[in-house]
Amino acid sequence: MKTNVNLQPYNSFGFNVIAKHFVEINDARELDRLFHTPEYKQEPHLILSGGNNILFTSDFYDGIVILMNNKGIETVADDGEKVVVRAQAGEDWPGFVKKMVEKGLYGVENLAHIPGKVGAAPIQNIGAYGMELKDSFLKCEAVDLETGRKRVFDNKDCMFGYRNSIFKGKLRGQFIITSVDFQLFKHGELKLDYGNIKSYLNEHGMEQPALQQLHDAICAIRDAKLPDPKSIGNAGSFFKNPVIKASEFKALKQRFPSIPSYEEPDGKVKVPAGWLIEQAGWKGWQDEHVGVYEKQALVLVHLGNGKGEDILYLAKQIQKSVEEKFGIKIEPEVNFV
Ligand code: EPU
Prior knowledge:
By secondary structure, the protein is an alpha+beta fold. The protein has helices at residues 30-35, 38-42, 93-102, 197-203, 211-225, 246-255, 273-279, 308-326; strands spanning 2-6, 18-25, 45-48, 54-55, 60-68, 73-78, 82-88, 127-128, 131-132, 137-144, 150-154, 175-185, 233-237, 243-244, 262-263, 269-270, 290-292, 299-302, 335-336. Residues 128-129, 194-195, 225-226, 236-237, 240-241, 260, 272, 274-275, 278, 283, 296-298, 333 line the site of uridine-diphosphate-2(N-acetylglucosaminyl) butyric acid.
């Protein structure tokens, strides 16, 4: 266990935050040893995966930060058509997707290039381009942080929702995910319907893309819109897209005819928070330390020498002005510590 470790490389906003204690887990079995240390028994703990969806609102974490870094990807079942692949929690998510695509396995391709690690993916049920983690999630293995006991969660147990799961809700902070099993396929139909995928493919002469081509196209589309955390600190979408009643949407559409929307299966309407924030005048706004990304208003950025509280203050101002203009409360997607 290390002491006074700067978490700057471990949070994608790139804030300087000192952790009182820090431990890296390279094999899930090491957790048991950690649970028996006096520090673990006395201090609060925080599980850090890729650190891509977290905002530290203070510059000191007074406890133990546990970094999941266990690696390994293996095929655990293959019936000639359906394949189950197990990935350890510390595996890099985009690297995992790339590998599956190279093997010709369908099921996670639209989730290409999302920064993060495998173990964090189920927590917020990562999603992009018409696909969500829950679509290929079979089960995960997790360890109870209080008792040290192992538990397996199947798809139903996880209670997945839009950027949500039981690990963000009822069981928040109670389990550490150590590995995830994915149900993938040797043949599949590509999902090309979302947003600008089709237009991008058409422009590049790929009306009927192969799996690898779709993967590469999604990487290119993301690169064009979303900042690389290695060069500009950010945590992807900072807010969730709000879901409102059909009647509320109708009224809004009358006032703002160009408002984009996606109808939900239950009849409610999802409205892109990026659009709301842009219309409220925030896109490209910046001060010395933080700002709103100029190509995608849903992404808040750290420009350098800032603090988590600067992002927090900006986020509150944005929420307030979106609520004043549209009467809609937008909620953060990022986790605050
Ligand atoms: N829009 C604007 N202005 C903006 C940003 C977006 O008008 O500044 C409009 C776009 O023109 C489009 C609509 O909003 O009509 C949706 O934009 P986009 O396709 O970029 O997607 P999003 O709804 O803003 C969501 C996810 C992303 C994911 C993309 C693609 C959430 C909170 N975000 O963003 O996920 O990559 O769809 O599927 O659901 C993440 O969670 O960190 C993330 C990046």
